[in-house]
Amino acid sequence: MIEQTVLQYLRAALPCPVRMEVPTNPPKAFVLIERTGGGRKNQIGRATLAIQSWAGSLLAAAELNEQVKAAMEGLADLDGVSACRFNTDCNFTDPQTKHYRYQAVYEITHY
Q1: Which of 18, 21, 43, 74 could form a disulfide with 31 if both were Cys (CB 3.0 to 4.6 A apart)?
Q2: Whether the Cβ atoms of residue 103 and residue 58 lie closer than 8 Å to each other
Q3: Nearest to 70 by CA among 57, 95, 58, 53
Q4: 49 near 36, Cβ under 8 Å?
Q5: How open is the CA angle 38-40-45, to the nearest 5 degrees?
Q6: Does residue 32 sit in helix, strand or coil?
Q7: Would the pTM count as exceeding 0.90?
């Protein structure tokens, strides 16, 4: 399962917690992985993952996003991952709650 592969990979590569869901009592900074799409054809999977960097300030969220992007550059070196393509990133702050976050979107090909 590609989500588990990315979760374990980013947990080893980043200095903050990496989660698949928002914790009840979130730490000051953490990374959230969310699958937004994908499919499988001829035993080759593809997944679109949104990786959100949450932090206590907009600058800290942007800096954590840069760390995520740097780490994701090496994902395709893992067994079972054919390609990891960066799609886009943006400020993804929730204006109502003021939870500062950035989001980077990746297209991952895996088998």
Answers
A1: 18
A2: no
A3: 53
A4: yes
A5: 75
A6: strand
A7: yes
How many CB atoms lie under 10 A from the CB of residue 45? 17
- Single-letter amino acid, residue 43: Q
**Residue 2 and residue 45: Cα distance in Å, rounded?**
9
DSSP state, 42? T
- CA 78, 67, 32, 109 torsion-angle sign: negative
Residue 109 · residue 46 · CB < 8 Å: yes
Lookup: tokens for 69: 């992007």
Q: Rounded mean pLDDT of 59-86?
A: 97
Residue 3 corresponds to which tokens in the numbers above? 């989500």
User: What pLDDT sits at residue 50?
Assistant: 98
Query: Where residue 28 falls among pLDDT bands split at 50, 70, 90?
Result: very high
Specify the pLDDT at position 16: 98
What is the pairing mode between strands 81-91 and 18-19?
unpaired
Quote the pLDDT of residue 77.
97
